[in-house]
Amino acid sequence: MSNSWKIILSVTLFATLFDIYQHQITIPSCKIANANSNQTLFDDFDHNHEDLTAILVSNLLLRGSDSSFFDLFFRDYFLSQFFSKSFDILKPDILLVLGDVSAKGFELTSKKWSSVVEQFERILGPYLHLPFHVTLGDRDIGECSKLKASLVRRVASSFPELNRGGCGSFGISNVSFISINAMALLCGNNELLSDVETVIETESAYLQTQSEDGEQSVKLNAADEASYQHRWRDNPTSPQSGPVLLLHIPLQQISNSYCNQESSSSAIWNSLPNSLKKLWRADTDSGPYDLLHTIPPNASEYIFQALKPRIIFSAHSHKFCDVKHPDGTREVTVPALAWTAKDDPGFIVATFRRNEAVVVRHCSLPRESHVVVSFIAIFVLSISPAVITILLHRLNKNELLSSARFSSLDNHQNGLVSSSLRTDCGVSCQPPPLRVCSVALLLCLLPQITEINEQFAFSIASDFQVVVEEREAYFI
């Protein structure tokens, strides 16, 4: 019974501390990108119903049926909690996933790919009804040497509003989006490039037409509108500013000096030579991997001229970056969300105002190493009352045994001395009269003190010699 309450106390304490800690760490820490002051999550955050709020994530690197126990019950659990807490606080209108949903989707069979999609839906949980759009990344459909149209069609069919080439366009709250298969542009001559060029040319022609006649109409897809509760389009709109461009691979950038809001780990990363960067990948089964890919300059210029994007959101590099291209177009690189990609993950919250302004917030999540160390500390703290109780119990037990041994020895020695006094002095110290007895004993004791001490010392020495002989015999 005594052990039961210790176990119950430890489990209750661990559960309480776990709940408090996980509630705190899953709250994202957000600040406005390029702001002069460290504005927090709710600073300058107007919940205007006319504004559109989007959460942008990338590099989930899900493994589906190949997930380890640690992935399923630790990383996936906290990823689900991150989504849940972020959706509850930020109340986004749409979720945008900028590629690399899977860790190695291009290597998976159809059955294993289905397990990745199920894992993605399970992580979103009750927020699966929220409109979402997924662009394709190189981990989903493969790098240039492994890029196949059949694989792209299979992956694209798993997500809403992607055509057979992995591109799509849609609109919500009068904000138009276009997503492009960046791998087709990166790899150049391939069977998918014509599909991507067709989408870009169609978008460009539509923008030109709308610019000439000033129309603001939107061609709706009624089936998708009923299914996803927002306005999906066959063709993009927004002639004044161009669409919001979504792609996995960043466009060609002049210099990394435009990147800011870096963490200490990002600064260390940027100080590494490029040869080490190309070999780096946190998920160990990926092998050599290049995080420095960008869309070639000619393709980047083609996009600027044809689409005139309002703002560009890209991913792939795992880090947050906010740059301005020479023509003034802003590009925001979304950091990786998976702990397997980087120790300090994050995501982006973009608010599209009615006045064409776009407010970008960079949100950070706790480091995996910090969470692991914290849970070890919580576990140690939870079991410490039981451990301390057991140690104190054993200490008290040892003290009682020691006291009993010393008490027995003292009684034995006192008995020897008392017997010697009574025998030699012939006096019994029992009243009455106590004073006469004490004086008689004192007079008798004085001449015998030396003899008694010698006998006592000899007795202790004899006992010690017996113990030594017994120990030597035991070891022999």
TrEMBL record:
* UniProtKB keywords: Hydrolase, Manganese, Membrane, Metal-binding, Signal, Transmembrane, Transmembrane helix
Q: Which InterPro entries match?
A: Calcineurin-like_PHP, Metallo-depent_PP-like, PGAP5/Cdc1/Ted1
Q: Which residues form the Calcineurin-like phosphoesterase domain?
A: 79-319
Which terms in the Gene Ontology molecular function aspect does this entry carry?
Answer: hydrolase activity; metal ion binding
Q: Name one GO cellular component term.
A: membrane
Gene Ontology BP, a term: GPI anchor biosynthetic process
Main subcellular location of this protein, as a coarse class: membrane
Q: Which domain of life is it from?
A: Eukaryota
Annotated membrane topology: Multi-pass membrane protein
Task: Provide the cofactor list for this protein.
Answer: Mn(2+)
Where would one find the signal peptide in this protein? 1-23
Can you say where in the cell this protein is located?
Membrane
Transmembrane residues, as ranges? 371-392
What does the similarity note say? Answer: Belongs to the metallophosphoesterase superfamily. MPPE1 family.
Protein name per Swiss-Prot or TrEMBL:
Calcineurin-like phosphoesterase domain-containing protein
Specify the species.
Chenopodium quinoa
